Amino acid sequence: MPEQKILKFPNGFFWGAANSAHQVEGGNVNDWTEWEKANAQRLAREAEDKWEPWQQEKFPEMFDPQNYISGRACDHYNRFEEDFDIAKSLGQNAHRFSIEWSRIEPEKGKFSHEAVEHYRRVLLALRERGLEPFVTMWHWTNPLWIRDLGGVEDKNFPCHFAYYAKYLVEQLGSLVRFWFTLNEPTSIIVNSYQEGNWPPQKKSFFAVQAVYKRLAEAHNLAYDKIHKIDPAASVGIANILNYFKPQNINSGLDKIARNFASHYSNERFLNLTKNKHDFLTAQYYFYNIIKFPSRINNKAEINSDLGWGIRPEGLYYILKDLKKYNLPIYVTENGLADAQDSRRKEFIRGHLKWIHKAMEEGVDVRGYFYWSLLDNFEWDKGFWPRFGLVKVDYQTLERTVRPSALEYAKICRENFLEI
Ligand code: IFM
After folding, report:
1. Would you state the pLDDT for residue 1?
2. Predicted local confidence at residue 298, as pLDDT
3. Which of 47, 146, 358, 372 gives 20 to 30 Å between its CA and that of 305?
4. Does ligand 1 lie within 6 Å of residue 371's CB atom?
5. Ligand 1: does its nearest atom lie under 6 Å from the Cβ of 283?
6. Ligand 1 atom nearest 139 alpha carbon
7. What residues in the chain have per-residue pLDDT under 50?
């Protein structure tokens, strides 16, 4: 029998799961909710061309326009205590969530006391349960007034965002140690402005350049403002980092294409926000094989319900690469759509194994957040992809803990992984 090994994590390691306001809260009014109403029919029609037959058969919801309307989502806005009870019962000691800007500042310069008090209750509920809050200020959705001013492309976006960030820290800073200004800025750059699939569906080279700049400025300004109010706060960006591998290691062209992709996807935003990070993050989903001039696939032997290949080793290479910055690192998202829960347990174990290897080699990883605690609204794909440790019945809103969540809970409680 092969020898069993214990991979121990350091004391104080943060174990948790993540979610974002728009994907779970329900009842939002923002640029996405408006876009959903205008695009639900089209998205349902296009599902036939977009997804493979096995996916269409397994998830017929994708043909229903309602699938693409976030609506009441998981009603987490009203059920957050129940959800945090579940997170606690699963041995977690941290939780990542986002505050919805459109609730806090529904009109320019007019802040909602009621919304602030809601998030104060959320933070207190986490603290009462021993869950350290990791708080995202902007997880892609914008108030309608921001949309009307030109969204993230507008030259005043950074100031508006920094003003909102300052307000949050003034109001809630005493309850928060870890702030993320932005979630995955490059996902918005690519999906909204490069490929034109997400709101505001503006496919333009010039808009891409402008948005890189605006989002970086927004972070940099907010970073300074937050520190002015709370010098002890830990501030960063929740960044998606993709792994790229040249198909042919001996091909100069494949290597050039790989470096180019990696620069635009991972390094450029970090360079634009240099020296404005108290920690770094990795949100890892994609291992891409690059054959000049572009990506050929991200499939693997085992794939998620979305067809995303599962290759945990990519996270190891990403973490090794972050070591040079000499900052603490948190894995703030890592997960898969797996409605049957047939791959999730090994997915989590596999990624943790590679994280641990990076740590053994000197990478200072301090926490891991599975995406996501609950099944949730997966943007332009709607509700059918099931990322949750906890299954949500969208008719009854009943929560059911999936078996893989219990396996993850064991690791969280014991602070080690047995392989
Ligand atoms: O659901 C998203 C999340 O909002 C941002 N990171 C990737 C997840 C899965 O696609």
Report:
1. 66
2. 80
3. 358
4. yes
5. yes
6. 4
7. none
